[in-house]
């Protein structure tokens, strides 16, 4: 059965859906000897599909959990020669990490050759919760905890509310649960409330927990664990609010200030006999200008309290 080429690549464990699209755009995929284009269809059973010179064939789906130690990069390979998490997993299938953990962050990391599974676990729209155990250089204050639980502004936009569980009496050991995957977001959140992280370990991913798995150890997920994660992703997607991308406010330009002033300044209207200043602010006490012509404007010389002088009797 024909289907989109990037979906075939993801199902075969070549890469995630997004990465598979990128490989097609870069001209790294050939179908029946011809360079493929984005949007092409193919049939894995009848077409000859080659990715980076390697034959593409369907593999059995595999799902692994690794207790990642610090010092390892979460990539398939590193141009700087640093050790990668792939050196800790020895399986026949071509698997890849689900999401990322920083080099100096340890704990639960999922790996798979299922591109659809990886997409649902890593994409922020599915809002899969991840829980971290953090050891802090200074105690987390009540005020800082409140800020994190309400959401805090970072350089790249506001964060979603986090869940905080205080583990130690001195408030220097906490569990923090987030569902965003921005770069070093947990570290930046705690630094912003003046409680920088000394050690960070991911202890759960959705419904899967690290438990007592030794460091560097790998175990395969059970069928129930995989099904529960997929059900969680589908349910989270269903109830999630639409994601509105945050845009950094632009600095006000001189032209913006000029237009704002022009829109808010008072306008004058009226005829020759009565001129009044109308203000846009909506103030009911509008100042009126004194008319220099005709009556009703100012007082006449010699009058008292604005009253007209009585006429004199008799002739001069």
Give a nutshell description of this structure.
This protein has seven helices and 19 strands. The chain has 316 residues and is α+β, with helices and mostly antiparallel strands. The model is unreliable at 301-305 (pLDDT under 50).
What structural keywords apply?
316 residues, alpha+beta, Structural Genomics Hypothetical 15.5 Kd Protein In mrcA-pckA Intergenic Region, Chain A, Pseudouridine synthase, 2 domains, nine-stranded mixed beta sheet, four-stranded antiparallel beta sheet, 7 helices, 19 strands, 23% strand, globular
* Percent strand: 15-25%
**What is the second-level CATH architecture of the largest domain?**
2-Layer Sandwich
Instruction: Compute the average pLDDT.
Output: 83
Number of helices: 7
Q: Helicity, in percent? A: 10-25%
Main sheet summary:
9 strands, mixed
Number of domains: 2
What is the rounded distance between the termini? 122 Å
CATH uppermost class of the largest domain = Alpha Beta
Q: What are the low-pLDDT stretches, counting only 5+ consecutive residues below 50?
A: 301-305
Query: CATH fold name of the largest domain, please?
Result: Pseudouridine synthase
Shape: globular
Gyration radius (Cα, Å) is 35 Å
Q: Strand pairing plus helix content: what structural class?
A: alpha+beta
Describe the structure.
It is a single chain. The protein has 316 residues and is α+β, with helices and mostly antiparallel strands. It has 2 domains: 3-55, RNA-binding S4 domain (Structural Genomics Hypothetical 15.5 Kd Protein In mrcA-pckA Intergenic Region, Chain A, Roll); 63-239, Pseudouridine synthase. The protein has 7 helices and 19 strands. A hairpin with a 2-residue loop joins strand 2 and strand 3.
